[in-house]
Amino acid sequence: MDILFYDGQCPLCRKEIETLKRLEQGGLGFVDIHHQPDDGPLAPGKEALLRRLHLVSRQGQWVTGLDATVRAWSHTPVGWLFRPLAWPLVRPLARRFYERWADRRYDQRYACDRCNDTTTRTVTTEQPGL
Question: Taking the CA of residue 8 as centre, how many other CA atoms within 13 Å lie in the half-sphere pointing to its CB?
Answer without folding.
Answer: 10
